[in-house]
Amino acid sequence: MNTVSKLTDKIDDLSNTTVDLKDSMEIAKINLNAMQTTNADLVTQLAAKTSQCKDLNDECIHLRKHLTSLKSQNGNESDKTLVIGSSIIRDFDENKLNNTEVKCISGGKINLSKLNKPGPKPYKRPSLGT
């Protein structure tokens, strides 16, 4: 009987192991499904971001071409305006001014000899401020 009892115990252990294995496989299946859903969501988001990135890149290329054409149209140096003045004009943002160069000369003398030379003028409109 002892042998039968041992075999019965082994069968019970095997049965319990099989139930545990089945539960573990079920949990693994649930986790796999969750990962597949997450992966599908990420792929969808990546496709959307890739499309947005392509659209932004196309827009950037268009804007650079437009900027280049504007610079070539306005590239004539003699059309520039020169603003010369004291430290008050130091904070003028040249990027926001069209074809304008700002020179801050605080407490010094301004030499206009470059503007009075014969030949092509470097600036179309010099402007002096105090």
Task: Describe the protein.
By secondary structure, the chain is mainly α. The protein has two domains: 1-73; 77-128, 3-Layer(aba) Sandwich (Rossmann fold). The protein is built from two helices and three strands. It has helices spanning 2-73, 113-116, and strands at 81-85, 100-104, 125-128. A three-stranded parallel sheet has the order 2-1-3, with no helix packed on it. The relative contact order is 0.09.
Strand content: 5-15%
Q: Please estimate the helix content.
A: 55-70%
Tell me, rounded to a whole number, the average pLDDT.
83
Broad shape: rod-shaped
Compute the CA-based radius of gyration. Answer: 39 Å
User: What is the chain-wise order of helices and strands?
Assistant: HEEHE
The number of E-state strands comes to 3
Q: Identify low-pLDDT runs.
A: none
The biggest beta sheet reads: 3 strands, parallel
Q: Within the largest sheet, what's the order of strands?
A: 2-1-3
Number of helices: 2
| Total number of domains | 2
Structural class: mainly alpha
What oligomerization state is this entry in?
A: single chain
Termini gap: 117 Å
